[in-house]
Specification:
The complex is a heterodimer of chains A (285) and B (151).
Chain A: E1 7-13, E2 16-23, E3 28-32, H1 43-49, E4 54-58, H2 75-89, E5 94-99, H3 101-112, E6 117-123, H4 138-156, H5 160-172, H6 178-181, H7 184-192, H8 194-201, E7 221-226, H9 234-243, E8 247-252, H10 259-262, H11 264-277
Helix pairs in contact in A: 1-11, 2-3, 4-5, 4-8, 5-7
Chain B: H1 3-9, E1 27-30, E2 33-40, E3 42-43, E4 46-47, H2 58-80, E5 86-97, H3 105-120, E6 127-133, E7 142-150
Parallel strand pairs in B: 5-6
Antiparallel strand pairs in B: 1-2, 2-7, 3-4, 5-7
Helix pairs in contact in B: 2-3
The chains are: A alpha/beta (285), B alpha+beta (151).
Chain lengths: 285, 151
């Protein structure tokens, strides 16, 4: 089986330059990475999907090889960047896939630009806001809020490596050493992107993300979760699933919050069968 | 058990998905079911031509059916990426290019069923139909279609 190599280019989009990678041929799939990491988190999934799809990855602003303008960043800027990526690299309606914070970006994009999409797939968007709605989630909410506040304080105090570790161990993973899930290069990427996460955590706009955002959408939506993920993600995903008309839920056995790193075949398989199950839109003759 | 370990033990290398030879898709996924189009028998990259009861024995037909099963698994892999995600094989339909007097279509189809059993264990067991037909595209000796369920 031939796996086409990824071609990288740097594209200016307004005030940012985004590092974009494209591999494979077929209908376009755009993969949006989450907080702390960069496009390379998708490498294993991109290799598998590029056998049958044209896979587009990119570094979100302030991550990897994409730059970041000064000032408080906003999630709507990430959505605008994604629109730039899709309009410049997409070929017809694309399958959009987002991981974690990248799933928040993808969700907002799907709500604003459904006409550009064939489907949207979300792995555990951190809709921690819903934890405040139910008394039984109060402890979960306190724990994640406290861990994120400590991570932010460490980064602000000039300790990005310690901040990244606190976030990884206490927010993103459960009883699993950071080193078991991410290699040294990926951990270094996390530390390098710490300032961007701090900025993102101060963005008031990110809190406006509602689990009802896709309620009226006609788009096919895939919601994936890992059985070994931190429990703080599930209430938001469950609310999203209940509120979204065309939602398909799939659970990845033994995977956690980072299936693209730990279980890429299983995640790619779930994505591939979801894309295949969507009836192709035939252009009018 | 990992399907790919068994494939390695059996020294089976899966081909790429079969290219359709007319106006249809090689597979379609509806919900948790994967429907594979009919796969005709091929040998050395060309149609495996023959007719049971005329110029092929039941044993040769079984080998052809096994080859079709391998080709179908290549298509199934293209559809689902990871064959370990197959929860079970649901159904096979086998069409055997055969003379009016030939009556061992069911034994010919066993060539495919046995391999699926070896690979998937109890989940490889399936409902099945096998019958004789007057001809098959390109003169192939057997054509099989399959339905599988995803986990």
């Amino acid at each position: 089986m031939v796996v086409p190599a990824m071609q990288y280019f740097n594209r200016p989009l307004g005030e940012v330059h985004l590092n974009i990678g494209v591999a494979g041929q077929g209908p376009t799939v755009v993969l949006v990475h989450g907080s702390w990491d960069d496009h390379s988190a998708w490498d294993a999934v991109a290799i598998i999907l590029s056998r049958a799809w044209r896979v587009v990855v990119y570094d979100r602003r302030g991550h990897g090889a994409s730059n970041v303008p000064d000032g408080q960043g906003k999630i709507s800027e990430d959505v605008a960047d994604l629109h730039g990526v899709i309009t410049s690299c997409g070929d017809g309606p694309v399958h959009l896939v987002g991981h974690s914070y990248g799933a928040c970006v993808a969700m907002m994009y799907a709500a604003r630009h459904p006409d550009r999409l064939a489907s949207v797939s979300l792995h555990e968007p951190p809709l921690f806001g819903v934890l405040a709605d139910a008394p039984q989630h109060a402890a979960l909410q306190r724990a994640s809020k406290d861990a994120m506040a400590r991570a932010a304080a460490l980064i602000a105090a000039g300790e990005p490596a310690q901040g990244a570790r606190v976030f990884a161990q206490e927010v993103a993973l459960v009883d699993q050493p950071w080193e078991d899930v991410m290699d040294a290069r990926m951990r270094a990427t996390w530390v390098a992107n710490a300032a961007t996460w701090l900025d993102q955590s101060r963005d008031p706009e990110r809190l406006a993300l509602s689990p009802e955002m896709l309620a009226g959408s006609a788009l096919p939506v895939l919601l994936t979760s890992g059985t070994a993920s931190p429990p703080a993600f599930e209430p938001g995903v469950a609310r999203l699933a209940a509120a979204t008309r065309h939602a398909t839920r799939r659970t990845l056995a033994e995977a956690g919050h980072f299936p693209q790193l730990t279980h890429p075949e299983a995640l790619a398989s779930v994505l591939a069968t979801f894309f295949h199950s969507i009836a192709p839109v035939r252009p009018a003759p | 058990m990992n399907v790919y370990d068994t494939l390695a033990v059996l020294q089976i290398r899966l081909p790429d998905a079969r290219k359709p030879s007319a106006l249809y898709e090689p597979f379609a996924i509806a919900g948790q079911l994967v429907f594979l189009s009919g796969h005709t028998a091929r040998k050395d990259g060309r149609a495996w031509v023959g007719q049971l009861g005329v110029n092929m024995t039941t044993e040769e037909g079984q080998l052809a059916a096994r080859a079709v099963a391998i080709d179908m698994l290549g298509t199934l892999q293209a559809a689902v990426v990871d064959l370990n995600r197959i929860a079970r094989i649901v159904k096979l339909t086998a069409l055997v290019n055969s003379s009016p007097g030939f009556t061992e279509h069911h034994l010919v189809a066993n060539g495919a069923s046995a391999l699926l059993g070896e690979l998937f264990g109890p989940q490889g067991g399936h409902a099945r139909s096998a019958f004789g037909v007057a001809q098959i595209p390109h003169g192939a000796c057997i054509e099989i279609e399959m339905i599988a369920e995803l986990a």
